[in-house]
Design goal:
Residues 1-103 form the HotDog ACOT-type domain. By secondary structure, the protein is α+β, with helices and mostly antiparallel strands. Helix content is 32%, strand content 25%. It has helices at residues 14-33, 117-146, 149-152; strands at residues 37-43, 56-66, 70-80, 87-99. The longest helix is centred in the C-terminal third of the chain and has 30 residues, at 117-146. The relative contact order is 0.15. It binds coenzyme A (COA).
């Protein structure tokens, strides 16, 4: 990680890591699919530890799941202090990519060979994660459409915000 990747606090900018994650996900997906792929979504980008200038960052990626035209790539990011050899796991992200054909439409990807129980666990976990995400999206969309601001304003009373307009209540 070179100095020009740092933010104002001297740590590595999150966007640099996101860009690396996206590129590695692309390489992994495109190799499996044998075609061009696009990023659809990135889950689990919680930066647990800062990455320092000078750290050697490694990204370990695998195809965890394939659907008909989509693939989920799991990426584990490790930052290593080259002076003392300490390694830190900074985050694990799951990137959904879709394979595109020459017509720019989603195209079917090859099945995934599960060689170990760990491979099967990752595949099953990806299915579970997708289900949870769909449930969350439905619940969130419903909550959003039903959210009445006036009826819910009291919930802001113990939050760190200030109401800056005249309210009825
Ligand atoms: C991703 C994209 C191809 C999906 O197109 P679409 O017409 O909705 O295609 P489909 O409905 O057939 O979905 C294709 C696959 O994407 C998956 N998909 C679509 N939206 C998704 C989402 N939000 N999260 C996860 N998977 C998603 C579908 O489940 C399907 O997977 P499957 O074939 O394995 O079952 C289209 O939205 C696209 O091109 N997006 C822009 C991608 C891009 O430019 N990325 C770079 C961002 S800068």
């Amino acid at each position: 990680m070179i100095p020009s990747y740092a933010n104002f606090g001297g740590k590595i900018h999150g966007g640099i890591l996101l860009s690396l994650i996206d590129k590695v996900a692309y390489a992994c997906a495109a190799r499996h699919a044998g075609t061009y792929c696009v990023t659809v979504s990135v889950d689990g980008v919680d930066f647990l530890e800062p990455v320092e200038v000078g750290d050697l960052v490694s990204l370990h990626a695998s195809v965890n799941y394939v659907g008909r035209t989509s693939l989920v790539i799991g990426i584990r990011v490790i930052a290593e202090n080259v002076k003392n050899g300490t390694q830190r796991h900074t985050n694990t992200s799951y990137v959904t990519m879709v394979a595109k054909g020459d017509d720019d439409k989603p195209t079917v990807v090859p099945e995934l060979l599960l060689e170990t129980e760990d491979d099967a666990r990752r595949f099953l976990e990806a299915i579970k994660r997708r289900e949870l995400k769909e449930n969350y999206k439905d619940a969130f969309d419903n909550a959003k459409t039903r959210m009445d601001v006036q009826d819910n304003l009291h919930k802001l009373s113990n939050q760190r915000c200030v109401i800056g307009w005249e309210t009825d209540k």
